[in-house]
Amino acid sequence: MEAIEHRFLDVNGINMHVAEMGPVNGPVILFIHGFPELWYSWRHQIVALASLGYRAVAPDMRGYGDTDAPSDPRSYTVFHIVGDLIGLLDAVAPHQEKVFVVGHDWGAYMAWFLCLFRPDRVKALVNLSVTLPPRNPKMKIIDMIRAVYGDDYYMCRIQEHGDIEAEFAELGTERIVKEFLTYRHPGPLFLPKGKVFSRPAETPLVLPSWLSEEDVQYYTSKFEKKGFAGGLNYYRNLNLNWELTAPWTGAQVKVPVKFVVGDQDLTYNSLGNKDYIEKGGFKRDVPLLQEVVVMEGVAHFLTQEKPEEISKHIYDFFQKF
């Protein structure tokens, strides 16, 4: 971990914090994190892949950690985020026409759009947890989700700016970090008003073996400083993204892809994702999908829960190219 380098880059109008490791001229792997995470979620993969000759690059995404967090919620659309990533690639890999990409959660979502908008920059993709969100031209995303799961579903609860932040503040940053990172229920996540997590706030939380108090304190220190609003703003742009991406209705991702998900992951067990993966929809929309791995007994934060296995999945796929 001490060998990981840190620097700040001016990309797409924001100051972005980036963690890097590996040979300067090695093939770049761009790691894109999700919510509520940081570059730190890739700490195991950065070290592992750097030791195998790759240049691992993991930013704190817009709104997170030591990267700028614009105050306007509408500054977090897919176009802003993909713009950040292209600016980052121009800065860290100016002589590499294409790079490898790994995404998890919101990072996976943004990686899909990076591949849709700029396939010329991506050699191959390993995406974790979140499948390609095919655009339904007849219904906005949040409207569709609300119709299925109601107002307490977490994506719906997050929509009103400042509302869920106030509840998070009441519970405290450390508690929120622990609640999310230890969540293992294989089904839809509901955050009812006034009772955002099902157990009382005073109930002690036992950390799994793969998550230390030191890890929790790192996340907590960064979210204490930055707050959760930047990360939550990604959710608040789901309907706006739906409007802006109308030209890509029916578009396919045409880069080589490997997809990995845990069978206990809430994303795998909600919104019809299992059927989408197993009944041909996923392969239809991602024709170069080469492999789907469903990890038994593994939940959402698989990069940390099963670090060696995830690093091996990434390496085994990328060494083909």
UniProtKB/TrEMBL annotation:
SUPFAM superfamilies: alpha/beta-Hydrolases. One of its GO terms (molecular function) is epoxide hydrolase activity. InterPro entries: AB_hydrolase_1, AB_hydrolase_fold, Epox_hydrolase-like. It catalyses: (24S)-24,25-epoxycucurbitadienol + H2O = (24R)-24,25-dihydroxycucurbitadienol; an epoxide + H2O = an ethanediol. It comes from the Eukaryota. Keywords: Hydrolase. Pathway: Secondary metabolite biosynthesis; terpenoid biosynthesis. It is an enzyme of class 3 (hydrolase). Pfam families: Abhydrolase_1 (PF00561). Gene3D superfamilies: alpha/beta hydrolase. Its EC number is 3.3.2.10. Belongs to the AB hydrolase superfamily. Epoxide hydrolase family. Homodimer. Epoxide hydrolase involved in the biosynthesis of cucurbitacin and mogroside tetracyclic triterpene natural products (e.g. siamenoside I and mogrosides IV, V and VI). Cucurbitacins have cytotoxic properties and exhibit deterrent taste as a defense barrier against herbivores. Mogrosides are nonsugar highly oxygenated compounds used as high-intensity zero-calorie sweeteners; they also possess pharmacological properties such as regulating immunity, lowering blood sugar and lipid levels, protecting the liver, and acting as antioxidants and antitumor agents. This is soluble epoxide hydrolase. The lineage of its organism: Eukaryota, Viridiplantae, Streptophyta, Embryophyta, Tracheophyta.
